[in-house]
Structure formats: structure tokens, C-alpha cells
Fold:
Amino acid sequence: MPLTASLIRNVQWPLMERFKQNQTRTYIQQLLEAQYLSPADLQKRQSAKLKQLLDHAVQNVPAYTEFADEWRTTAEEPEQFMQRMPLLDKRHFRESADRYLSAGANPAELIANRTGGSTGEPTRFFLDRPTVERYEAARWLGLSWYGIQIGDPSVMIWGSPIELNQREALRYQLKERWLKNRLIISAYELEEKRIAEHLRTIRRFRPAYLYGYASAFALFAELMLQKGLSLDIPLKAVISTAETLHEHQRKVITEAFGAPVVNEYGARDGGIIAYQCPAGRMHAFSENCFLEVVDPVSGKQVPIGEAGALLVTDLYNRVMPRLRYQLGDMLALSAENCSCGINYPVLKEIDGRVDDMFVSTNGTFVHGHFINHIIRSLDGFRTFQLVQHAPDRLTLRLVKHDEKFQPEDELTVLAGIRSALGGDVSIAVHYVEQIPPTASGKTRYAIRECPLTGSCPQE
Ligand SMILES: [Zn+2]
Structure:
């Protein structure tokens, strides 16, 4: 075992537990034991936690006190009762966040967090230390399914902290290197000419696993394959996080790195929600969160197996409970069991973000994947971005594959978009060198700027 991994595992963590009362390892152990419980037992435990959370919220959280009498007198199970509670969308939460702070919680003692705002305004919220540790425990449990342990070296491809000055940046890198055994490569520096250098850096560091954005890994992998480069060290896994992992991305990343590509599903404002197991299924950490799936327009629950908008209720955060928080993702729950032996409930599919859905001129919803399918079926384009400004007005940015591009490819793409979104939509086509990542370092393929209701006014 390399020295740093051993120090982190055997010295640093026990010290953190002793002096900072950090309980992450206890939580990992609890999650590990729970994963083998029967689905019925897991559900019972989740239900009991949900009940405690509702007890707390209706008593202490201004946004929920109006439900106190109803909750006290109801004969319903907590899962049913939840359906009476309002959906919490990000905008509403941003505008009235103070009403979600528990009586007695002192913001000065809490952990302030915020979303990156890559898909809109940042959302600010508070957490307590144990909640953050439970999220971390969920990630470590997921990683343990691949033989990865606390302290193992990793390379992260990430939106780098560009706002830091040079000295802060150095301190940040040192902390990453020696306290976390982690090396960071900026997602902004994945240019063609630097790929060989990045590979040398990774090789020297000898990580057990890589961790980062799906789009950044996909770009890295494509450049490796184009140049015939390989990493030449064994990896336990490549962990893709913070973005939808598309099938074509998984394929190219697996091919380039020769390691399993693992989907971590989480969000800064939702915690670590699910992890992909070695059998390929996504397991939701039902010990930490309660998930519901609703129709994105009506807000009504959809039957298990059907895709809709995800609502997350964190079962532990008592300082600022957010019930039925609409994270912005589309997915389906599943009643199936997985062959891997882990009994955490299975998520059927994670379909991307509600923001990735387009709306056609006749009001139907079309997933952003459709354009992906059209473009991937042609060889002429490396990548693309489609922006829907209004149902009938779009901008398409295309990055050409110079050797393979045929002028008729553009017509094929435009015809595909029109068949899905409406024959009379106007599409401004721009050929660009690359699709720039957003401020957080993520690259988005599909962006909708008008509401999903299908009734947005024409400009
Ligand atoms: Zn499984």
C-alpha cells in the first residue's frame, strides 16, 4: 500500500474521528450492513425515518408548520402523507429559504453550501456536519463495491477553483495531494496538445481510480483514441459524476481507459443519491433519502417504472429540511431486484435533466437524447449543442469531424430536429471549433430556455 493511502486510512481518519467527532466511517459501516437487509426491512426503516423527519419539520420548520394538525391526526403512512406536501422547486426555495431553516438552528454553526449555478441561479442552503458525513459515507460505500478504500489515490478531472489566487491555488493543491491523496486536472485544460502530458502526470501519480465529469472524461477519451494514446496503468474504476452519463460516453471512456465506468448519481443540493453497482444497476441509498417521481407538469406521482421528475427528501438534514425537493432530473424508479446482492432499491434509468427536455411546437416533450441519436448515427460531427430559445426557434452548434464530414450531414440533422420538434421551427446553425464548458466545467448538449409547459409566448 502506498504510504499516503496508509497514512490517510490509519492515522488521519482516526484523528479526525477523535478530534472533530467525524463519524463518516461509522456511517459507512451502517450503510454496508443495511445493503444486505431485505427490501421490506429497508422500506420499513426508511418509513420510520421519514416519520421522524415529518414530526420534526411540522413542529420546527416555518414552511411546514401549517401541516402540523393534519399530520398529527392523519391515519396515513408517511409516504402517502408526503403526497399532500407541496413540491419544492429551486426557485421557490431560493426565494424563501429562510422559512426552511429550523427553529433553533444557528446559521453561524452550520455548513453553508450552494449549487454551482451551471443551469441557473445558484441555490444557497445549510447543512449540518453529520449530514455531509452521511453523503460522504454513501460515496465511500459505492466506491467500496469496486474495491476502493478511504485514502486510495485518485485523479479528479474537475472545474478547477479558478477564482483562487496563486498562493491559495498552491495551498489547495497541497491539501488535495497530502490530505486527500488526490490530484486535480482542470476540465478547462483538456486541449488536444496537452493530453499526452496529462497522461504522463496521471501515470506518475498511479491513481486507483479517476473521478470527474462524464463530458470531460468523454472528451479526454476521444482525444486519447484519436491520437492512439493509452494510460497503461490498471484502474479500479472511472467514476463519472455530476452529469448524465450517456451511453456513447460510457463506450468511449471504457475503450480509452480500459476500466469499468461507474455512474455516481448525486447533486450538491441533493447529496449522493445512488451508485452504480458492478452488475450495472443504479442503487439508491434509501437509508439517506426518500425518492419520489412525478409528472413534470402536473406534479402527480407516476407509477413505478415510468419516468418523471425526481423529488428528493433528505432523511437526515434537520437544520434545513427540504421535503420533495425537485432536483431537476428525470428518472424512473424500479421495483426490480438486482443480482449483485445489494438490496438498495434500483433506479431504472436516469434520463438527464428536466432542462434537457425540449418541447415541440405542438406541446409534446422530446428528450434531448433524440438529437444525440441523430448526430451519433452520422460520422460527420465530433460534438454539438442544441439550444431551444422558444418552441419554434433554436440554435444548433456543430463541431465538424473534418475528414468525415459530408455537407448533406447537416441536412440530415436539421430534418431530424424538424421531425421531432415541428416542421416549421427555425434553426440557426453555427459551425464552431468546440463547445465551451459552462462556468462549472460541465458541457451541456441540450439547453432549453423556455418553460416546459409548451405554452411559452412567441418572441
Ligand atoms: Zn446491483
